[in-house]
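ok trying this again, last paste got cut off
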Amino acid sequence: MSRLLSTCRMSEPSLFTDQDPLARWDDMKIYGPYARTLTRWIHKLLDPLVFSSVLDVGCGRGHTLQRLIQRYPQIERVAGIDLSPISLQDARERVGQGDYYVMDIQTSALSEQFDLVICTDVIELLLHDTQALNNMRKMTAKYLLVTSLQGNFLPEWEVRISHHVRNYRRGELAAKMREAGFNIQCCVEWGFPFYSPLYRRSLNLFQGQGMDGHYGLGRKLLSEAIFRLFYLNTARRGELIFVVGTPAN
């Protein structure tokens, strides 16, 4: 079952921001080279598509929805689902519009459909990914975009800190999307060599130290340099994957 987060006045300061454990990742979502690259590829894949409604599965504090609203003025309806009511409250304030639902995508789906359903860096955290994809299918009118990781599993960083339960084998996520009722329109494998293996293994080696918290000038400059370096990665080989599907019937 899902629960709609109650509406609050946008002009009031958030009562939850300081209590949300995800708040320490806000600067990383804005300045981090991985987050910026993720956004760059999401926009690249979405630019040719036509959509006016968006649902973000696992929307967290609303960074992805905020960027989508800013880039695509044709969006008329936005919604987000997440397990954390605190994060959803912050997402509502960040985005400034939309409906937000406390819901577990592994067990529930909304009764309505959206032109675009997007799920970024979430499905690898779910024990029951097949059920989650089946529920996303129920809510997808035109397109589903899923991002995740494939290839080598890095237990220190990805399991202990990021709480991953899996990395997909090559082609596995697309196959599971087909089983859930999607035709695969596009699959991008990105990151070799500067994201994967170099940057990703470095995160594991140092247990992600330096990613969270406030980004001062030095961290911003370093992040900018790495982000620019990431442009040299190939989009034909890598461990960060983007899969776009459309409902099969």
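PB: full thing came through this time. The chain has nine helices and eight strands.
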